[in-house]
Specification:
The complex is a heterodimer of chains A (271) and B (248). With 271 residues, chain A is α/β, with parallel strands linked by helices. Chain A has a single domain, classed as Rossmann fold, CATH 3.40.50. Chain A is built from 10 helices and 10 strands. In chain A, the strands form 2 sheets. A 6-stranded mixed sheet of chain A has the order 6-7-8-3-9-10, with helices on both faces. A 4-stranded antiparallel sheet of chain A has the order 2-1-4-5, covered by helices on one side. In chain A, a hairpin with a 2-residue loop joins strand 9 (211-216) and strand 10 (219-224). With 248 residues, chain B is mainly α. Chain B has one domain (2-244). The longest helix of chain B has 30 residues, at 52-81. Classes of the chains: A alpha/beta (271), B mainly alpha (248). Chains A and B meet through helix 2, helix 3 and helix 10 of A and helix 1 and helix 5 of B.
Amino acid sequence: MIKLTTNVNIISAQGVTKKFGKFTAVNHISFDVKKGELFAFLGPNGAGKSTTIKMLTTLLKPSSGSLILNDFDVVKNQDSVRKSFGIVFQDPSLDNELTGYENMELHAVFYGLSRREIRPRIESLLELVELWNHRDRPVKYYSGGMKRRLEVARALLHHPHVLFLDEPTLGLDAQTRSLFWNYIKQMNHDESMTVFFTTHYIEEAEAVAERIAMIDHGKIVALGSSKELMDHTSTTSLEEAYLTITGHTVRDEQVSASEVWKERRRARNMR
Amino acid sequence: MRVIYILWLRQLKRFVRARSRMVSAVVQPLLFLLALGYGLGSVYKRAGQGNYLEFLVPGIMAQTVLFAAMFYGAMIMWDKQFGFLKETLVAPVSRLKIMIGGALGGATTAVLQALMVFFISLFIGFHVENWGLLAVALAALCILAVSIASFSSGIGSFVEDMQGFQAINTLLIFPLFFLSGALYPLTGVPAWLRIIADANPMSYAVDAMRGALIGQTHFGLAKDFTVLIITAIVLIAFGAYRFKHIEA
């Protein structure tokens, strides 16, 4: 099959803001992602990348603005939206006591796959990520890279239109990262599946993404292909482009929305 | 139904695979049975109350369910901590089904632990008065288990960390257990203790167990089950409400 990137938007964000009390984690951002595109959110830790993914995946409600995914309003049509995407979270989200197969089976039932299609689908995906021979081992014995591959396979189980990857290679060694992106590019190519990922690794965004949105302090400060971003800033690398646009490097950490959020919840619970 | 079933099965698999959890689930109640049953048995007999072990077993079975079902809330804390909860919350499944499936699984493992205690107690001298009423005892255990597992899922939904959960756990389950008449008869206790025991739903679970297994009841089985069912409705509603607002 040949990969098709169309001009049809599968994700559309218009004026989206997320506030936690007085703290603005995401500040009036607007962007579109085309069907079949490999799209990256690039920014330092705490810039608002994970908050944006949480809003797109129904885990958080935006304070204002509109989010459309696969023609469904993310706030009003949560179940339809949830069926449309698969996600690999920043932190592992597997049940370590269950086997790889059982983790996949659980997900298949959540997404309403029929009994007849569950086993062949799981088999084909676990074969694809080279985990079929390890299917009956509890996940607690998997390496970090194997867990990541299992999470990707799980995210694809229900044939999603969009795959969200939130800092998917964090904590993985260089070789495993390279293998991981090979799988993702292959799936994007073979199934024309849209991939939306967040990263603070510039080389990853440059090597994988067709378009990159640079995010800083909750705002999208630039959007385009890596070549467009470099041309626009008259720089020769994406790192320089980021520095020119934001005045700091992508490695500079910012106040994380999740930390602000947890702190507020703790304070609220203590009242 | 498939979602509820697979989440129920998940709890069972996790329980069966955690051998240390199975062992500790039985050791603590057995310690209560042996230390108190034999330690205080002679005093109880001299007071003209009969066989203390017989009296104690139903209370210890209810205690096993209470402690084990409360443990389900800790599972929610772990699911939060290790990320599995997020996987369930982004799935196109109602939170009520997620809560029910998990709580039923937690309740089932709690009842299994109580049954393990029951079978062991048969070997150390416990006699069932009327085997025909075993189903009644099981029903009381099941209602108690579902109530407590639902309640603990509600607690696990809003508590931020494991220390906080354990603090609430200790604050709740020990008074529920010690003020329930599980270890002593409620006849002849001071008025203040009797008022507390009358208001404690755990007293009715213990009483129903005792009524069914050894034919001794303080409140009467009809009153026991009425209170247990009302408690179950309230605690399931609490668990469902809190779980609906859970944040991963």
